[in-house]
Amino acid sequence: MATEQAAKSEKTIVVSGIPDNIVKDDVMADILMIHFQKSKNRGGDVQDVVYPTTVKGVAYIIFEDLEVTKNVLQKDEHRLEDKRLGRYYPLKISLYGEHIFTCVSSVLNLSIFGEKYVLEDLVQELWKTIPALNFSPLQSNGQISVQGSFSAIKSLKDYLLSKANSLSGNSKRGEKKLDQRPNSRTQKQGLFVEPNNKFVDNVSGEEQVVVLDTDIYYYMKHFFYKESLGKYKVVSREVTDGEITTIYLENTRASSDSRELERAKEEIEELSAKLHCSLRKERFNSNTRSERQKYKQACESIKSQFPKILVIPYDTHIDVIGSSSETYEFTQEVCRTVKRHFQKRFRR
């Protein structure tokens, strides 16, 4: 069974960047099937399309032949095109188990730019600048949903920050000030772009800011965080909002060396990049509280066998984060444990 599962995973790719709420899920699954069957995409026979998944905008494609999987992965660019989608969408693909944090969904409030830009034109500019992102239709209040890889979202944050700072600079030269409007900020589900440079490295060396994927932050904090920051004379505070966590680093009173902050920030960013490429996340969804409790108990009962696995229980589900191999083994063992429990209960 383990050999069969391993062979299946070798023929499975993870696809991210799939547009959300444009067509029905079964239609999108058909579009994906057709895309990966086409010879121009170096595709072939598809055994199964798993969509939707627990991660928004992500699908799993399982091929019949290992060679087809390799050919698809070797293609430089995949564009999802279908007349039902309205336009093409760039896809990011990887072999199953290589990367798991492939897609982040967030909400932007672009109303801060309404005084200087036509927001529809701004959205087009953002899409052309960072084509890996997917945007929903712009709402009348200036809000828009955006979806893409964590690195693409971070690039978007930097781009909007540059624009916000530019507008702030113009206001100092006599133009209308942005901060006269209440709540004048561009917000991305916990990632704010403010004209007061809150997200720019403090030039005085008093503060540094790091933006991380929340799941990676939780794993880093649990296994590496104290170890990585313990060598530096810095203190940190964290703000978690949805899929984004922002870490603010400041010098302790005993130190005023700005290089300490810079080194601490660099270490966190390097560790985050490594974890981004090595971690995998699985999720246990349950419909009832009692079922969720059984999964939680099963996770706790075998956790000691997997010291590098992080289990995060939520009200509606349980997330499991770790290396690809350990996460797979852990989730399989949890499922077997829960199954044995229900079998014993049924015999009674």
UniProtKB/TrEMBL annotation:
- Gene3D superfamilies reported for this sequence: 3.30.70.330
**UniProt keyword terms in alphabetical order:** Coiled coil, RNA-binding
What is the top-level taxon of the source organism? Eukaryota
Offer an example of a GO molecular function term for this protein. Answer: RNA binding
Keyword Transport attached: no
Q: Where is the RRM domain?
A: 11-98
Please report a single Pfam family linked to this protein.
NID
State what protein this is by name.
Answer: RNA binding motif protein 43
